[in-house]
Amino acid sequence: MLSSLRTAPIKAYRQVTLMAHTILVVEDEKRIAHWVRTYLEKAGFTTLVAYDGKTGLYMARRERPDLIVLDLMLPEMDGWEVCQTLRRESDVPIIMLTARGREQERIHGLRIGADDYVTKPFSPDELVARVQATLRRATGKMRTAEVLRAGNICLDVTAHQCRIDDAEVPLSPTQFKLLEVLMTHAGQVLTREQLVSLAMDDAFDGFDRAIDVQIRRLRQRVEHDPSAPRHILTVYGLGYKFEP
Ligand code: CA
To answer: 13 pLDDT band (50/70/90 cuts)?
Structure first.
């Protein structure tokens, strides 16, 4: 039974436990904004809404959304200016909302850095599909700044850095990977076998119990009291669990 846990289903957990992507919708027509928001939330996204360009730009900088749905005709600052300004400072994916039949707008939008566009009037399914596709491309390309946080632990996967209470804690590559796997699957029990297959490189052919040694070392690094761990818990008879 244990060996069957080792394969395919584990991958899915990572997606499930990742935080929902946040989408910023910049649209002055309240009815459309509300409608877009409703459908994006139904598809599992977290949403933010701005009703004018200036507020949109401000929110994009402050909230750092994963993607922006940007209308072109906006009060205060139009979509072009918002897009151009943002492109100078970030790679955040932008989907523009353009009016039907205005080819030039679309071409110009893509030229100044929009990733995609949707023509009004549009179907909610189309918008959601484009948001998902654009996010997939963006995360495939960048995988930037993946930071896992739980309590006093901050794991910057991209920079390969672990901080406890804001102080950097050195971890070996194996310890780092083990902590990353545990934090990604927070709240779930992982068997020793799963931990070996997810956190150890292929050359590792130790007995599964060797994971206990690695866990003990990891606790010494990241737990305030390694003998009474608060995050990396033993689940008797099963394996280990990360408690955020
Ligand atoms: Ca508008």
So the answer is: very low
Distance between Cα 222 and ligand 1 center (Å): 50
pLDDT of amino acid 19: 53
Check residue 211 and give its pLDDT. Answer: 85
How many Å lie between the centroid of ligand 1 and the Cα of residue 59? Answer: 18
Mean local confidence (pLDDT), 127-131: 91
Q: Do domains 2-144 and 147-242 have the same CATH topology?
A: no
Q: Cα(158) to centroid of ligand 1, in Å? A: 38
Domain boundaries, the chain: 2-144, 147-242
The CA 33 to ligand 1 mean position distance, Å, reads 10
pTM above 0.70, yes or no: no
Q: How far is the CA of 139 from the centre of ligand 1 (A)?
A: 28
Q: Which CATH superfamily is domain 2-144 in?
A: Response regulator (3.40.50.2300)
Q: How far apart are CA 183 and CA 49, in angstroms?
A: 30
Only one residue has tokens 């491309």, namely 137
DSSP letter for 21, please.
P
Domain 147-242 falls under CATH 2.60.40.740? no
